[in-house]
Design goal:
alpha/beta, about 400 residues
Length: about 400
C-alpha cells in the first residue's frame, strides 16, 4: 500500500496552541489525570456565556439563515459592521467594503491568498499569533518578524520595522490589542507605522479582534482611522467579545484609496464565491451584538470576571521569584518572562511539558508565538479567579525547585 504524499507547504505549518503539548494534555486526561488547559482563549470552556441579546437574535430569526446568503454577508450584518467601524473613525468605507467570514481565521487566509505571491514578504510582530505566520507560508510568502519591545510595554519598535522593509515587502501586520501580550498600541506609534506603509506603498493588515476587551482606561485607536492613503484591511469579529467562538463569526473591512480597494474587492469576491457564503446563523446576531456593548464591558470593570481574574493572576505571579511580566491592558492573555539563568532553561517547550506533567497545568511556550530566547510563556486568564490563584501558586511551587540544566 502506497503512503499518500502531502503538500510540501505543510511542512512549515505549526500550531503550538493545539499541537504536541495539547495532545499530551489530552492523553493525560484519558488516563484520568486532571489538567487545567490554559492554552487557548475559549471563554465558553470556562463558564462564560453569550449575552441574552445575541441568543435572542439567533433564535428569533433562525429561518432567515436556512438558505445561502449574499457572498459578502447578510445586508443588515454588513450595515451594522459598517456603522461600527465608522464610529471607530474609519473614513470612505461603504457596505461593499465589508466581507463576513467563518471567523477571522478564514478571512486571514483569504486575504493572504489574495494579496501575497511566492517570494513576497510580510512583516509580522514578534511575538506573533501563529495563524498569520501559517497563512503567509500557505500563500508562499515569507514571514519577517519585527520586534515588539517588552521594556516599552510590548510596543512595536518602528525603527526595526523600517530596517526590515525590502523590495519584497508587501504588507505590515498590526495586532492591536495584541495576542499574546495584551498590549494596546499608542496612536503615535500607529501613525509612524501608517507613514512607513504610505512611504513604501505597503498594505496594512490590522487585527483588532480584542478591541472591545479593553480592561484599563487605555485609549484604543483603529489603525485604519489614521490614513486614507494606505490600503488597510481591518479584521474583527464576535468570538471573544460576545463569547461565541464556536459560531465562527468574523469579518474584514477594506479602507483606503478606492482604486486599490476595488482590486482587492474583486480578488476577495473570487475567494468568497468559492465557499458560497459564510455561515448564515452567526450573521443573524451581528447587529444585536454590536448594539450591546454593555454585556462585554461588565466583564472588564472591577468586580467583573475578566478584571478580577487578571488581578488575581498578576498578584500571585508578582510573588514568584524568577518571573517578570508586563501587565496586560486588554484581552485575557499574559506573556511572562522566566529568569533563564535561575532556572537553567534552554528549551521552553520542555519547560511547559515538565510543568504539565508535574502540576497538570498546560501553558504555551513563547517559541509557539515565534518569540526567541526560550524564556517566555503565555497564560490564558479565563478560569475563575480561585482556580487561577491555585494554578499560579502551583506554578510558583514548581519553579521553586526547577532547574532544567
Amino acid at each position: 500500500m502506497s503512503i499518500p504524499k502531502t503538500a510540501q507547504r505543510l511542512s512549515l505549518i505549526r500550531s503550538d496552541i493545539r499541537g504536541p503539548l495539547y495532545e499530551e494534555a489530552l492523553r493525560m486526561e484519558r488516563e484520568g489525570k486532571k489538567v487545567l488547559k490554559l492554552n487557548t482563549g475559549n471563554p465558553a470552556s470556562f463558564g462564560f456565556t453569550a449575552p441574552e441579546s445575541v441568543r435572542r437574535a439567533l433564535t428569533e430569526e433562525m429561518e432567515r439563515a436556512t438558505a445561502y446568503c449574499d457572498v459578502k454577508g447578510m445586508k443588515n450584518a454588513r450595515e451594522a459592521i459598517l456603522s461600527y467601524h465608522l464610529s471607530r473613525g474609519l473614513k470612505g468605507i461603504r457596505e461593499e467594503d465589508v466581507f463576513l467570514s467563518n471567523g477571522v481565521s478564514e478571512m486571514v487566509q483569504m486575504i493572504t491568498l489574495a494579496t501575497l505571491e511566492p517570494g513576497d514578504q510580510i512583516l509580522l510582530p514578534c511575538p506573533n499569533y501563529s495563524l498569520w505566520e501559517n497563512c503567509a507560508h500557505l500563500a508562499g510568502a515569507k514571514p519577517v518578524f519585527y520586534r515588539c519591545d517588552e521594556e516599552n510595554g510590548w510596543i512595536p519598535d518602528v525603527d526595526d520595522i523600517q530596517k526590515k522593509i525590502t523590495r519584497s515587502t508587501r504588507a505590515i501586520l498590526v495586532i492591536n490589542p495584541n495576542n499574546p501580550t495584551g498590549a494596546i498600541y499608542p496612536e503615535a506609534v500607529l501613525k509612524q507605522i501608517t507613514r512607513l506603509a504610505e512611504e513604501h506603498g505597503l498594505m496594512i493588515f490590522s487585527d483588532e479582534i480584542y478591541d472591545r476587551l479593553i480592561i484599563d482606561p487605555t485609549p484604543f485607536v483603529s489603525t485604519a482611522s489614521l490614513s486614507e492613503n494606505v490600503l488597510c484591511v481591518t479584521f474583527n469579529g464576535l468570538s471573544k467579545s460576545h463569547i461565541v467562538c464556536g459560531w465562527r463569526s468574523g469579518w474584514s473591512v477594506l479602507s483606503g484609496p478606492e482604486e486599490k480597494k476595488k482590486v482587492l474587492r474583486e480578488a476577495l469576491m473570487k475567494l468568497a464565491s468559492m465557499r458560497l457564503c459564510a455561515g448564515a446563523l452567526p450573521q443573524l446576531t451581528v447587529p444585536a451584538a454590536l448594539a450591546d456593548p454593555h454585556s462585554t464591558q461588565s466583564m472588564l470593570i472591577p468586580g467583573g470576571r475578566l478584571y478580577e481574574q487578571r488581578e488575581t493572576t498578576c498578584s500571585v505571579l508578582e510573588s514568584i521569584d524568577g518571573i517578570d511580566f508586563v501587565k496586560n491592558h486588554a484581552a485575557f492573555y499574559l506573556f511572562p518572562k522566566l529568569d533563564k539563568e535561575k532556572f537553567g532553561i534552554v528549551n521552553d517547550t520542555q519547560f511547559a511539558l515538565d510543568l504539565l506533567h508535574a502540576k497538570g497545568v498546560l501553558i504555551i511556550p513563547g517559541s509557539g508565538f515565534a518569540h526567541p530566547g526560550n524564556d517566555h510563556f503565555r497564560i490564558v486568564m479565563l478560569p475563575e479567579k480561585e482556580v487561577l490563584k491555585k494554578a499560579m501558586t502551583e506554578l510558583g511551587d514548581f519553579l521553586s525547585g526547577y532547574k532544567q540544566k
